[in-house]
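We treat protein structure as text, and this decision shapes the records that our systems exchange. The remainder of this section carries one protein's record, kept here as part of the documentation:
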Amino acid sequence: MKREWGMHLGLALLRLIGLLPYGVVRSIGTVAGELAYWLATRRRRVTQINLARCFPHWSLSQRTAVARGHFRVFIRSFFERFIFWYAGPERIRRLCRIEGLENFDAHRGKPVILLAPHFVGLDAGGIRFTLESDCAAIYGRQKSRVLSAAMTRGRVRFGDSRMLLRNDGMRPAIKVLREPLPLMVLPDMDLGARDAVFVPFFGVPAATVTSISRLAHITGAAVVPFVTEMTDAGYVVRIYPAWEGFADEDPEIAARRMNEFIEQRVLEMPEQYLWSHKRFKTRPPGEPGFY
C-alpha cells in the first residue's frame, strides 16, 4: 500500500513537471539521465555489454559516450512522456511532427502493421499518431500496477485507441487487423526462444520474433516501418513505405530483413536505441549468457 501511494505521488510530481515549458522539462530529464548513468549500475552494465557485443570495433571511449548519451535521452523521454500522456492535441502536435504520413495513407482503411522499433521516442510518436488515425498497440504489463494504469490511460486518450496485452497471444491482434485497425508492433524485444528465430543483430545472434511476418501473412496486412527520433525541439516520426513481399517471405528471411532495417536506423541515432534492454538474454543452445 505504501509503495502504491509513493507511486501515485511520484506520478503526480512528474505530471506537474510536464506542465513546465518544454525546454525546462528537457533539461530536467537530461540531468536526471546523467545521474541515472552513474546510479543505475545494473542497467549501465547491460548497456555496456550490448554496445561491446554490437560494436567491438569501436573504442571504449566511443562506446562509453554512446552509453552516457543513451541514459540522458532515455530518462529525458520518460519525463517528457508526462507531456504526451496529459497535454492537449495542440501541444502534442507542436512537439512531434510526422514525416511520410502518405506512406500510411496509401493503406488507410486496410490492414496495416506499424513496425515500431524500440527507440526512446516511441511513446511520443505513438501518441502523436493517434491524432491522425485510430490505432491499436501491443504492450507488456508493467511491474507497477499504478504506472501501468497511467501509461494505458495516456496512450488511449485520442480516437479509437486500444492496448493489447502481449501475453494474450495473436488472436486479439488478428481481430483488430481484420476490423481493420492499424496495429503498432514492437519487433525487437527478446521474448524467449518460443516463436522466434536466431538471426544477426549487428552480427550477434538475437532471438527475433516471427509474429510480424506471420500476422501479415494471415491478415494480408501491409508492414509499414514507423520510427520516432528525439530532437532538441521535440520529436519527429518517420513513416516509411510498406515493405514489398514481406508477408510471403520465409519467417527467418523476414526477421533478417527486419533486423537489418533496425540496424540502419540505429546507426543514424545510436544513443536513442534501447540499449538498456537485455536484447541478447536468450542464447542459442549451448552458448553461455551475456549478462
The longest strand covers residues 222-231. The first helix runs from residue 2 to 17. The chain has one domain: 2-272. The beta strands are 96-99, 112-115, 135-139, 161-165, 183-185, 196-201, 204-209, 222-231, 234-239.
